[in-house]
Amino acid sequence: MALKTGTMLKNRILFRQLFDNASFTYTYLLGDVNSKECIIIDPVLEQVKRDFKLVNELGLKLKFAMNTHMHADHITGSGYLKQLSGCKSVISKMSGAQADIYLEDEDIFSFGNYNLKALATPGHTNGCLSYYFEDQQMVFTGDTLLIRGCGRTDFQEGSPEVLYKSVHSKIFTLPLDTIVYPAHDYKGVMSSSVAEELKFNPRLTKSLKEFVDIMNNLNLDYPKQIDKAVPANRVCGLHDIPDDIDIKIK
Ligand SMILES: N[C@@H](CCC(=O)N[C@@H](CSS)C(=O)NCC(=O)O)C(=O)O
């Protein structure tokens, strides 16, 4: 039976930070405890059962399965969540990926009584969006701004110059106490703030020239799942739903 969260948490947003320990991805669940509508940001296919169970346990109704961008390191769970819940999948228009709803810079979307704003923050990919939740002083930065780091720019239309401009113009201009929630952290840190990243980010506190040099010399290994993740994410993750799940793809 679902929990009666509305009685305990009136006027509070329901917020969960979920983790996939294979890809080091954070998935975020945001729910309005009054209307029960919720959204999920950056779900991972392998964790969909866990996430959807939690949505049901909390008595929530999933409105949107959102992606900050077309990921290269894991298959999105948005297509599978759509099949399970009837929610709409969401990604940026610029991503080149299929979804029910396409967002652009400054688009506002809502769940329950709450509004979030899409901020175009390209650079890791052309279609990267950050989602700004002004009411709760949160920003979900995807792979654009990581904690003391940032998304790599060596594939999928990546550009260090574009990423630098995105972070400085769209994220570092938000109120200083805005909490930064990235799509990944590889060191176990879960959140940061605009003020902290402005002061301590070892890449983005540098000049543009120094930043470009750093990014062009990261020499990171390619993500292990890139060859299956990118084609799957182009179709919303729908083509690689596990065989043991009895669902039909519409
Ligand atoms: N080892 C991981 C991939 C790690 C990686 O490349 N992460 C990306 C985000 S996912 S495309 C990134 O931008 N990293 C920036 C950095 O500085 O680490 C795997 O095999 O999946």
TrEMBL record:
<keyword id="KW-0223">Dioxygenase</keyword>
<keyword id="KW-0560">Oxidoreductase</keyword>
<comment type="subunit">
    <text>Homodimer. Monomer. Interacts with TST. May interact with RELA.</text>
</comment>
<dbReference type="GO" id="GO:0006749">
    <property type="term" value="P:glutathione metabolic process"/>
</dbReference>
<keyword id="KW-0479">Metal-binding</keyword>
<feature type="domain" description="Metallo-beta-lactamase">
    <location>
        <begin position="24"/>
        <end position="184"/>
    </location>
</feature>
<dbReference type="GO" id="GO:0070813">
    <property type="term" value="P:hydrogen sulfide metabolic process"/>
</dbReference>
<keyword id="KW-0809">Transit peptide</keyword>
<comment type="similarity">
    <text>Belongs to the metallo-beta-lactamase superfamily. Glyoxalase II family.</text>
</comment>
<keyword id="KW-0496">Mitochondrion</keyword>
<dbReference type="GO" id="GO:0046872">
    <property type="term" value="F:metal ion binding"/>
</dbReference>
<keyword id="KW-0007">Acetylation</keyword>
<protein>
    <recommendedName>
        <fullName>Persulfide dioxygenase ETHE1, mitochondrial</fullName>
        <ecNumber>1.13.11.18</ecNumber>
    </recommendedName>
</protein>
<dbReference type="InterPro" id="IPR001279">
    <property type="entry name" value="Metallo-B-lactamas"/>
</dbReference>
<dbReference type="GO" id="GO:0050313">
    <property type="term" value="F:sulfur dioxygenase activity"/>
</dbReference>
<keyword id="KW-0408">Iron</keyword>
<dbReference type="GO" id="GO:0031123">
    <property type="term" value="P:RNA 3'-end processing"/>
</dbReference>
<dbReference type="InterPro" id="IPR044528">
    <property type="entry name" value="POD-like_MBL-fold"/>
</dbReference>
<dbReference type="InterPro" id="IPR051682">
    <property type="entry name" value="Mito_Persulfide_Diox"/>
</dbReference>
<dbReference type="InterPro" id="IPR036866">
    <property type="entry name" value="RibonucZ/Hydroxyglut_hydro"/>
</dbReference>
<dbReference type="GO" id="GO:0005739">
    <property type="term" value="C:mitochondrion"/>
</dbReference>
<dbReference type="Pfam" id="PF00753">
    <property type="entry name" value="Lactamase_B"/>
</dbReference>
